[in-house]
Amino acid sequence: MAINYPNGKKFIPQKEQPVDQKKKKKKKDFSFSNRGKTLEDELNETNDYYLQLGHAVIHKKPVPVQIVRVEYPSRSAAVIKEAYFRSPSTTDYNGVWNGKYIDFEAKETENKTSFPLKNIHEHQIQHMAQVVKHDGLAFLIIRFSSIDRYFIVPFEAFEFFWNRMMSGGRKSVTLTEIEETGIELKPGAFPRIDYLPHLNKFQ
């Protein structure tokens, strides 16, 4: 299925790779506790856990897509052949916790020593800035997948690194800088990524 941006440019998933490369990556060694799950999988399970226990109501935002071409190979089947993103996405998750609106982006990197800022878009920075301006909580949850470390970074701290890049500075945030400005999250069982208890430190 072809998916395009509002300006007509073709959307190419970042993880899309030739079949032979996918076979090579399949051998990647994941820890038993993670079992190859993505950060999104882990956060979805965590948010379901929070919802069931009544701790918070947090959901993954749906991506607005407009379908423009559908083919019907049979009466009982429909195949989407072309679609467009209606508008740029903002952040991955939002919801309500403890009477507070929260909004955050979840990102993974295989880099062991830094987080590339190209993984974030300017409209996402602007969105989180607006959330903070209206007294909401905005932050990022970053996973360094190669070393299996997780961090929650408040937007106010992350915005400094973004502005540094926009002023001609480095185009990434070092692991040391993330350790100094964020809080490391230790993966558990139930929930997997227990980030809510740390939000009080950002208020």
From TrEMBL:
Source organism of this protein record: Planomicrobium okeanokoites (Planococcus okeanokoites)
Full protein name: Holliday junction resolvase RecU
Cofactor(s) named in the record: Mg(2+)
Keyword Hydrolase tagged: yes
UniProt cross-references to CDD domains, sorted A to Z: RecU-like
A Pfam family: RecU
EC numbers, comma separated: 3.1.21.10
Gene3D superfamilies listed in its UniProt record: 3.40.1350.10
Record region (Disordered): 1-33
Family designation: Belongs to the RecU family.
Main function: Endonuclease that resolves Holliday junction intermediates in genetic recombination. Cleaves mobile four-strand junctions by introducing symmetrical nicks in paired strands. Promotes annealing of linear ssDNA with homologous dsDNA. Required for DNA repair, homologous recombination and chromosome segregation.
Keywords: Cytoplasm, DNA damage, DNA recombination, DNA repair, Endonuclease, Hydrolase, Magnesium, Metal-binding, Nuclease
Site (Transition state stabilizer): K107
Binding site for Mg(2+): T90, D92, E105, Q124
Co-factor binding comment: Binds 1 Mg(2+) ion per subunit.
Reaction(s) catalysed by this chain's protein: Endonucleolytic cleavage at a junction such as a reciprocal single-stranded crossover between two homologous DNA duplexes (Holliday junction)
Subcellular location: Cytoplasm
